[in-house]
Each structure stands twice: as structure tokens, then as C-alpha cells.
Amino acid sequence: MFLQRLGPVEWRIHILSRAVIVVAVGLLAYLGAFDLDPDIYKILFISVIIYLSTVISLHNRTGFWLDGLSLVFDIVMISALLHYTGGSKSPLIVIVYLWLFAKLTMNARNGNPYALLLLAVAGLVMPGVGAWGDANWGSFMAVQVLTVSLFAIISHVLLHERRRNQRDPLTQVLHRGAGLERLAEKMRASEPFDLAFIDLKKFKNINDVYGHAVGDELLQGLAGRLLGSVRAQDLVVRLGGDEFLVVGPRGVLGERIRRIFHDPISTSKGPVPLSGDVGIVSWEPGDEASLDDLLARADAAMYRMKYTELREDPAEPGRSPAGGA
Q: Is the pTM value of this prediction over 0.70?
């Protein structure tokens, strides 16, 4: 992900905030807070109405293009507001700071430093264009560079802290709470995916035979392999104990996970074989299942595999050590 996709709640806030701004600007101009040509305000008002009507009519959109449109619209409209309400002396410069804080904070949840850089650049473009031609443009922009830099530093700290707090301390994959939150975001963003529910086999016996320290090493090794089997935008989640969730690309996730169980995992007491039961389910836009429903389906798929293997002869040729999908 390059920018944080907006969910239904975020889009409603997005629409309401833009409507409030355009009405407030007209009221402030009427009260004499700044000079704004009535004809210019009419153009801005009509532009906002057209934009908001487009967003409302496309609330079930897929892909990133509407999110990109919102970014471009905000940059153009805020730059225009600054330009026509006093440039570097416009009291509406506060809108830039509020916009930047909201965007940077929201995208800090996404954990993408490139998105933060893009938004920081946008935060400089708006006052730069809005105050272009002013006699004190250079000193004005020096203040803006300082302000935006502080925002970027704060956001980087937020990003680092959020990412650290999202991780399971032992395995460094997402913990249950953060993982399920991110999975819900993927569903709201209409991204098709496969979901794997993994339950390790006889892990208690491994702890009893090798010790809990080796058990921890196995969990760390497995987590590393799971992370290596998916893309950066996919999810690996430790639900707790020896259970993991993996969200990855459609059609290939099951085979990738099965391969990671082929070789033993290296530990301080030598290589230790590890196997697991794996249940795979798919989700795509239009699937009306809730997050709980989806997890229940994945859990049921895993148990079907577990009990299927219990009924099979352990020596049966061709049996997969990781279960199946």
C-alpha cells in the first residue's frame, strides 16, 4: 500500500469535513475575516459540491484511484483557498496544518514511510502555491518547511511506536489485536485474498521433549519462514500459542505454506521437524461474510484437515506433512 485506503467511516468523515470547510469559509468571508471575491467563492463551492457528489455516488469503489483523486482535490482546493484569501497572510493556513496532521496520523497506521514522505511534500506544495508571488514568499516558506519537518518527525515516531506495539514480542509478526484490525481493513478495502489458519501439530510434545526455549526458537523460525512466503503488503499474525493466520495472494498461498514445513527448523539443539494443519479459505469483494464468519470458516477448514489426517494411515504414501488446503 502506498496510501492508506479509506474505509466507510473514514469516507463519511472525509465528506463531512470538506462540506464544513466550504461552508465555514463562506461564513468567515461574509463576516469579514478575510477578503474573498464572491465569484471565486461560487466557483470553489460548485467544485466542492461536484467532488462530494462524485465521492458519494462511488462509495462502493474499488482500487486506489478515488483515494488519489481525494489527495489531488485537497491539494488544489487548499492551495486555491490560500491564494484567494491572502496568500502568506491568509488565516486559513491553519487548514494546511490540520489536514497534514490528520493525513500523517492516519497514514502512520499504514506503516509506509513513502506515504508519509508524499504527504509531507503535499504539505509544502499547498502553502507554496497558495502564497506564490508574495513579497515575503521565501521567509514564509522557511517557516512552512520547519513546520512540516516537525510534523514528519512526529509521524515517524508514531509510525515506529505503532509498528513496535503491533508486534508479538517473541515472533515479531503481528499480534492478534493488530492482525485482526489489519485484516478487517483489507476486507473494507475490497482486496481479494486467501486466508490460512495454521495450527502446529504436537507442539506441546516438542516443548516437553526439547524444552520451552527450543519451542520458542521453533516459533521464531516458523514466523520467519511465513514472512518470507508472502509479500510485504500481506499479513502474518500470531493468534496465540502455536496458532497463526496468514493473509496472502489468491491461489498460491496454500502451496507456499506447505513448502515451509518440508525442512526441519534449526535450533540450539539441532534441526527439529515441525508440521501443522492448515486450513485455507478465500475472500473476494462481494463476499458478505463478517470478520468473525471468515475466521470461523478458516478454523473449520483447519479442523477438517486435522480430523481427515487422524482417520488416515500415517504411513500412507503421498501424505503432506503440513496438511492441506
A: no
